Every structure is written in C-alpha cells, then in structure tokens.
Amino acid sequence: MTGPGRPALRDAVVAPTLDDPVVGRLSAVVGGPRGQHAGRHWFWTPVRVLLALTALCFVLGMAQKSGCYEDTWTNGQQRYTHMCYSDLPYLYTGRGLAERAWPYSEDPDVRARYPQVMEYPVGISYWAYGTALAAQALTGWPDLADRESGPTADLYGRPDVQREIRAFVIVNALGFAALALLATWLLAGVTPRRPWDAAAFAAAPVLALTALINWDLIAVAIVAGILWSWARDRPLLTGVLIGLGTAAKLYPLFLLGGLLVLCWRQRRWRDLALASVAAAVAWLVVDLPAMISGFSQWQVFWTFNSDRGADLGSIWLVIDQAFATTISPSTINEVSLVFFAAWCLGVLVLGLRAPNRPTFAQLGFLLVVGFLLVNKVYSPQYALWLLPFAVLARPRWRDQIVWQACEVLYFASVWWYLGGELKPGGGGDAGFYWLAIAVRMAGELYLVALIVRDLLRGPSAPRIRPDVSESAVPVGR
Asked: Where in this chain does the entry annotate a coiled-coil region (predicted)?
C-alpha cells in the first residue's frame, strides 16, 4: 500500500544490483540491474530467497564433509587431505557422550573413565549432551553395560557406536542448519530496507566449509539475535541474548562494550544498565545447573584456556616456530590481555569521537577481531564469529570476497599443515602455513581499516542506518 510520504515497497528495499558495483556487474548474466519498472514476485520475497540460499549453502557444506562421513572419520589422513575434519565424532566418544555421561558429573566412576571434561562453555555442553541422547534414541537406545565393561579406547571402532556417531553428526547438522536459517532471517531483519546485506552470510564460503567443525553456530545465531533485538530497541532482550551467547561462547560478552559506546553517545544509561543486568542474570541461570552438579568440571573451560600454550592459527605459534622458542602460557595471557585492553580502549575512543555514529555490527566486528588477532588459537570455524558482524558492518561484496578468500586460504592450509602436506621437500618448517596465518590476519585487518575509514570519513555508499533505536535520536556523541 502506498500513500503520502510512504514509498512503494519496491522503492523501500534497496536493490543490490543498483547499490553494489560487484552485484551490478554480475547481474549482466541474468539481464542486468533492476529496472525502473521491475515488479515483485508473489512468492520469492528477499527473505525467502535468502533462506533458500542458506539452505543451498548448507547442503553444499554437508556434501563437502561426505567423504569423512562415509567412513565415520576413521581415515586419519583423509580428514586433512579432503578438508572434512570435524570435532563432533571424536568428542562423542572422547567425552563420554557415547555412554550418556553428564558433562558435569562428579561421579568417581565417570571421572575415572573420562578424566578429560568437556572444555566448552555450558551452552555447547548442553547441546552436545542433548543431541547425543537424540542420536541414541534414533539408533535404538543402546545398553551401556556392555560398553562400560571395556576400555574407552575401543569405543570408536565398534560398529554400533559408529552408527550412533553418524546419527549424532546428522542430528547436529540439522540443528546447525536450523540455526543458520534463523541467523539469516534475523540478519535480514536488522536493516528492513537492506535485507540483501544478509546474502553475504547466506552464501558465505566460510559458512559452508566450517559450520560442521564444531558447535560455534549456536553462538553465531544468538549474535544475529542480539543485532536484531537491539535494532528493534529491545535492550532487555538484547541483554538476555548476550547472557545466553556468553554461556555458549565467550566472545558475545564483548558486545557489552559495543553497547557502552552506543548508549554513551546517546545518553541511554538506563538501557545499558538493563541490558547488562539481564545479561548477567541470563548467563547465571544457564550456568547454574552445571555449577551445582559439578563445579570443578564447570571450571575446566576457564582453566583449560588459561593453561594452554600457543596453538594452531595464532601469531604465537608463528613466533614459537620461526624463532625456535616456547612462549609460556602466562606470558601469552599477559601480553594478550594488555593488547586486547588497549584495543578495546581504542574502539571506545573511536566509537565516541567518530563523526559517523557507529553501528552495533561495526563495533562488534572491531571488538571481536581484536580478541582473535592475539588469541592463543584460531580454529577455522572462528571465521563464523566475525561473519554476522562483517556482512552488516561492511555490506560490500568486494570486501566480503577479499576477507573470505583469506579465511578460505587459511582453512585449506591448516588441514594440509596437520596432514603433513605443507612440509618442504628438503625438510624444515612449514613456512607456507605461517604465510596463511599472516594472510588471514591481513584479511581481517583489511576489513578493520575499511570500517575505521567509514566511521572517520563516511562510507563510499549512502549512509547505512540499520538500527531503529539509533535513527530515533539525533546524531551526536
């Protein structure tokens, strides 16, 4: 319906073929950019197209893992050469899920058989335990007495357990697909006039390649919900989702820093307090069952990350290998903390002083990437952490392609490195893997530079104003 001051819907939604140079050029193969008299399809709305793209992307990702799925990840070399590795099958037996062991059990018999506790936040542990129960229900609910009578090292090779592992992966994959669809829907709704910005998420190579490696999509979907809820001026829901996200992964906690900047500029101290308290309460409610049932097991996530040394994908690993040294975990902890604190302070100053008021996605990207640059480990699926922020903070396909190409290079390199494929013929260190780490970091810093430039000088495209809550108040510090 149109009327005075209300544009037609086709004019209200920004057409990507007219807005993005890359999309405009690519549209030549289907007839060129959107014309002045273009109509609307009765069924294929932008959101439905985005959901279809997400489904297709996810199916391609599942197909990419099919080589490992067919032999239940038993071929130790194929998982690297075919780049189809996943943590899920190994943790199913390695953390007691095959014997329905509660991750936070203090039972001496359970801990004797499984001394290594789930090293993830409680949200992931709950999900993994629930999907393990679902997989066993689908495969006949096995009698555990026979399994518990033998050594845990033999579990993975049992045919009945391998059948459960395949069911476990399928159940998780279906859950991840639902989360990816939900994230796409939420991201498309952050900016009502720009739903197509979410296409860079829906069709992302990093989504297809890394979604099934671990449980990171849980936090990714929650982060999309955080961006959506704040755009609709719902600070209480935003805080609850930040608490839930922190219960699944640590990094959503950093978004409170983004809220600090936004609320400071707009003097919305009540909303900041409401979101912060809601985040703390939601996190405590989710974590409390684990803390009560096994406090020492609950602490493992924190102690594990504090005690680990330089690991895959990190700049610390490059330094260790290149200079034939070993940086102690305590030194890495201290230096990383100082760097990240200085980085956050820089984001705070930038966010408060920038002529253009930053969006939540821009601040979220800057904060999370600062953490990842100096983190002790960079698993390939960590690119998913940045994806919702990146597609909204810098909605240009050229920039998304550059960044994701760097991530895909790292994705391939880390598996080939682990499989021994990058060893020089004459021996020595795998220098190409170091280069891949540097390229991945350069891709992230490339987006950082563009976002900072947008805030200081204004974006190259017309100003994007995704947040309803922001557009309701005058621009100011």
From this structure: none
Condensed to tens digits (0 to 9), the pLDDT of residues 10-49 reads 447 776 755 656 655 665 555 455 555 555 655 668 999 9
The rounded radius of gyration (Å) of the Cα atoms in the chain is 23
Is the pLDDT at 8 greater than 90? The verdict is no
Tens of pLDDT, residues 155-204: 999 999 999 999 999 999 999 999 999 999 999 999 888 998 999 999 99
Cα distance between residue 206 and residue 388, in whole Å: 12
What does the alpha-carbon distance between residue 18 and residue 25 come to, in Å, rounded to a whole number? 10
Q: Find residue 3's DSSP bridge partners.
A: 6
Please check whether residue 212 is in contact with residue 61, taking contact to mean a CB–CB distance below 8 angstroms: yes
**Tokens describing residue 186:** 């939420």
Helices (H), 65-158: 66-70, 78-81, 88-94, 108-113, 122-138, 144-148
DSSP character at residue 251: G
Task: Specify which residues 6 forms β-bridges with.
Answer: 3
Which residues face 9 on adjacent strands? none
Q: Residue-wise over 257-269: b if at least 16 C-beta within 10 A, else e?
A: bbbbbbbebbebe
Tokens for 319?
Answer: 């330094």
Backbone angles phi, psi at 244, to 5 degrees: -65, -40
pLDDT digits (tens, 9 = 90+) for 432-468: 999 999 999 999 999 999 999 999 985 443 444 444 3
Residue 118: strand, helix, or coil = coil
The H helix count followed by the E strand count for the chain is 26, 0
Tell me the two tokens of residue 173: 């994959």
Give the number of C-alpha atoms closer than 13 A to the C-alpha of residue 323, restricted to the C-beta side. Answer: 9
**Residue with structure tokens 């998780």?**
172
* Mean pLDDT on 315-339: 94
Helix, strand, coil % in the chain, rounded to nearest 5: 70, 0, 30
Mean confidence (pLDDT) of the chain: 89
pLDDT given for residue 113 in this prediction = 94
Listed in sequence order, the residues at least 6 apart from 252 whose beta carbon sits closer than 8 Å to its beta carbon are 219, 222, 223, 226, 241, 242, 245, 246
Q: d(Cα 181, Cα 149) in Å, to the nearest integer?
A: 42
Say how far apart CA 250 and CA 33 lie, in whole Å: 42
Q: How many CA atoms lie within 13 A of 387 on its CB side?
A: 34
